[in-house]
């Protein structure tokens, strides 16, 4: 047992013919918001899925508050709020019915279910569409329903795969503020393609390319790696070099 | 804070069952089931001409109607979760694979039970027309429910195998057909020549043979154990398949 809420050690995943995640190790401390960057197919989602117990690692392991995701997966998932890639939800359910389902699975009963759902709806600003079937909602609302589901139990660890994808600029701003507000109490990993987002909310950034960590620093230090001082240029340099 | 095993299964089953009724699936299934059972029993099964107050004609057709309709329910069970990506949501909540498998299976089974229960006018009809042995009828219903459960368990495992619902349907119908007729002379005679050992095994796992006992009003412990093991085996296979293929 050590301190960090998220510990990843030598995590490896091979798919037929290639290694999607290759010996990735890092940990995330309480209060940190880690931006997880990399080109499509670099292994971001696979790493996050292994952390959430959806994909089993071929090597190494990860721990969430000391619970090993390989051997103690359900306990690890109790501590985790996870937004899967694409924010999947059950389309025929109303927002409230869906969140109630998640709350009850998470062990809340009676009045607690209602108060948890109300809080999640409030945090993600879903009041206006509470009773609508999810399939009738716009992409931005669907994403926020996914986010509400991940925040519902106020977990100490949050893993969010592209939380702001499909949101309009105002909604992006809101979600970033929400993440920043929660940050002091939690360990958070967010994956994103929006580099300005990293500069706005992340305290640290990891870039992975071809399954390997190629950079791990604060956004500021990362940006300083290129003469232009732009994160975009650093990202391009590092990931293209790895691909070559 | 930590819900028990059965509570989680119940919550998953409840959500699943509600989903049937939130879509036209429930209505279409129940209407077609009742229409088929009615037509087959009254027109093909000579319900009135037989002049006997029993539901033999009704129970003779139940497995064949289930053979067609049960795979239509199960084909979406896991294939749909994978298509929508919700499998990733469901299995990253604090639930075990087996809880998810069992919850989905029980919802589908409860749904079949509802469809079966809605055939109650048949019971009223025979009771108005004569004095049937209602014990035999009850045993027949129990048997029908167990056949539905067996087909559901097979179909559910097939659905976990692929994200394509058509493939899930065809695989489920084929396998259910094989197990339905496994003990029948048709399959037996054919296999006895080509593969005698297989024929011997299959003779013991035929679903319809077991079901016949129930329709005659005989509820034997071996038959109950058989159905329980059959369903248990396929649910176990289902959980293994879900685990292997969930992220594909």
Question: Secondary structure elements and their pairing?
Answer:
The complex is a heterodimer of chains A (244) and B (248).
Chain A: E1 6-15, E2 18-28, E3 33-37, H1 44-51, E4 59-64, E5 67-68, H2 73-78, E6 80-83, H3 95-105, H4 110-123, H5 139-151, E7 157-161, H6 169-182, E8 187-191, H7 195-201, E9 204-209, E10 212-217, H8 219-223, H9 231-243
Parallel strand pairs in A: 3-8, 3-9, 6-7, 7-8
Antiparallel strand pairs in A: 1-2, 1-4, 4-5, 9-10
Chain B: H1 5-22, H2 25-44, H3 56-74, H4 79-84, H5 86-90, H6 97-117, H7 120-129, H8 134-161, H9 165-181, H10 185-194, H11 196-204, H12 207-215, H13 221-245
Most extensive contact: A-B, 29 and 24 residues
Give me the side-by-side strand order of the main sheet of chain A. Answer: 6-7-8-3-9-10
Q: Which class do the helix and strand fractions of chain B yield?
A: mainly alpha
Number of strands of chain B: 0
Which spans of chain B of ≥5 residues are poorly predicted at pLDDT below 50?
none
Name the beta content range of chain A: 15-25%
Order of helices and strands of chain A: EEEHEEHEHHHEHEHEEHH
| Percent helix range of chain A | 25-40%
**In DSSP terms, counting alpha (H) and pi (I) runs of 4 or more, how many helices of chain B?**
13
Unreliable residue runs of chain A: none
Main sheet makeup of chain A:
6 strands, mixed
Order of helices and strands of chain B: HHHHHHHHHHHHH
Q: What is the global morphology of chain B?
A: globular
Distance between the termini of chain B: 32 Å
What's the average pLDDT of chain B? 90
Number of strands of chain A: 10
Number of helices of chain A: 9
Shape of chain A: globular
**Radius of gyration of chain A from the CA trace?**
18 Å
Radius of gyration of chain B: 19 Å
């Amino acid at each position: 047992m050590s301190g960090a809420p998220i510990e990843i050690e030598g995590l490896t995943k091979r798919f037929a013919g290639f290694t999607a995640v290759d010996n990735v190790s890092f940990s995330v401390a309480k209060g940190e918001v880690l931006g997880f960057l990399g080109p499509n197919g670099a292994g971001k989602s696979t790493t996050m899925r292994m952390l959430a117990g959806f994909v089993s690692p071929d090597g190494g392991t990860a721990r969430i508050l000391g619970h090993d995701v390989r051997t103690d997966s359900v306990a690890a998932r109790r501590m985790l709020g996870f937004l899967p890639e694409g924010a999947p939800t059950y389309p025929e359910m109303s927002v409230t019915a869906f969140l109630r389902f998640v709350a009850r699975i998470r062990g809340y009963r009676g009045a607690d279910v209602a108060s948890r759902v109300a809080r999640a709806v409030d945090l993600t600003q879903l009041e206006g569409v509470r009773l609508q079937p999810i399939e009738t909602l716009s992409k931005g609302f669907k994403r926020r329903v996914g986010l509400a589901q991940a925040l519902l139990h106020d977990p100490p660890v949050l893993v969010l795969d592209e939380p702001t994808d499909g949101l309009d600029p105002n909604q992006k701003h809101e979600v970033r503020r929400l993440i920043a507000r929660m940050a002091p109490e939690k360990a958070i990993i967010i994956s994103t393609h929006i580099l300005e987002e990293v500069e706005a909310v992340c305290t640290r950034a990891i870039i992975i390319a071809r399954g390997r960590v190629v950079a791990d620093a604060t956004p500021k230090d990362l940006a300083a790696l290129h003469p232009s001082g732009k994160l975009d240029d650093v990202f391009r340099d590092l990931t293209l070099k790895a691909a070559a | 804070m930590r819900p028990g095993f059965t509570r989680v299964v119940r919550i998953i089953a409840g959500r699943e069952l509600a989903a049937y009724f939130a879509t036209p699936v429930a209505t279409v299934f129940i209407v077609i089931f009742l229409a088929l059972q009615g037509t087959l029993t009254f027109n093909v099964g000579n319900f009135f001409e037989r002049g006997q107050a029993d539901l033999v004609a009704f129970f003779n057709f139940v497995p064949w109607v289930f053979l067609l309709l049960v795979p239509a329910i199960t084909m979406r069970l896991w294939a749909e979760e994978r298509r929508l990506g919700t499998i990733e949501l469901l299995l990253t909540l604090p639930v075990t694979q087996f809880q998810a498998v069992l919850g989905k299976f029980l919802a589908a089974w409860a749904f079949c039970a509802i469809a079966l229960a809605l055939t109650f006018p048949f019971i009223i009809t025979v009771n108005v027309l004569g004095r049937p042995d209602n014990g035999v009828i009850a045993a027949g219903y129990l048997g029908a429910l167990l056949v539905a459960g067996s087909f559901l368990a097979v179909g559910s495992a097939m659905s976990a195998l692929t994200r394509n619902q058509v493939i899930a349907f065809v695989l489920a119908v084929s396998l259910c057909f094989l197990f339905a007729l496994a003990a029948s002379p048709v399959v037996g005679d054919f296999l006895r020549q080509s593969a005698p050992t297989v024929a011997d095994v299959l003779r013991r796992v035929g679903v319809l043979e077991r079901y016949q006992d129930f329709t005659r009003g005989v509820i034997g412990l071996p038959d109950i154990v058989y159905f329980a093991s059959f369903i248990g085996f396929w649910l176990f296979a289902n959980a293994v398949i879900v685990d292997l293929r969930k992220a594909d």
